[in-house]
Amino acid sequence: MSISIKTPDEIEGMRIAGRLGAEVLDYITPFVKPGVTTGELDRLCHEYMVQVQGTVPAPLNYAPPGYPPFPKAVCTSVNDVICHGIPGDKVLKAGDSVNIDVTVITKDGFHGDNSRMFLLGEPTIQARRLAEVTYECMWLGISKVKPGAHLGDIGHVIQQHAEKNGYSVVREFCGHGIGKVFHEEPQVLHYGRPGTGEELKAGMIFTIEPMINAGRREIREMPDGWTIKTKDRSLSAQWEHMILVTETGYEVLTTSAGTPPPPAIVLNKDAVPA
Fold first, then answer.
1. Of these four, 64, 96, 136, 172, which has the most CB atoms within 10 Å of its CB?
2. CATH code of the domain in which 112 resides
3. Contact 96, 84 (CB under 8 A)
């Protein structure tokens, strides 16, 4: 496994990309409300990236081996959609939960990848709790990042917290290394055993993006070749940040004015500050 260690210049480029990716989610937040279509959210994000930021949406026409080109600028995953939901004519309604996943490419070629959950109207207690626990899972994983730690440490704490709360962790999709390449080594699993997997080194950059299901972890793929749903039709949630391993801990690269703060479960631990 060849994991790239980013240079200081590359790290600075990734800081810019991360901030721009987060700012797209800041921009779209007030538009995520009952009555809007996922296609309209995609159009607004796309226009903001291209016309305001001067960035390119990485998902648009992205086609890894075995996949058709992804037709939209962002992913919108609603309710029982785990990931890779294709924006379209679906009208969001009160009570829906939706993950919006944004990846920008800067003029210098760096990728900024992040996602957030949005709860519309008065969400059910279950939807709110699932989003909260998934957010805690992501941050507990982030809090394990430091030189000398292992990828298994991240996956273990995420799996432990999800399952303790009665939820399941999707196994088929994971976080990933990122830089001028959208998806590179390492794969960052959201389950595992402490002390296993690659050792973390300063200069690594990767995403932590747990997908947590309210029911069972099994998935089903839709005929469009992209959309992944829970097999038992239970709710799913996801949050994503892009993380730099620093000399002493970690730095969250996907931060902006509207980025939600770390949850109390992490702030109350001896985590390295972002």
1. 136
2. 3.90.230.10
3. no
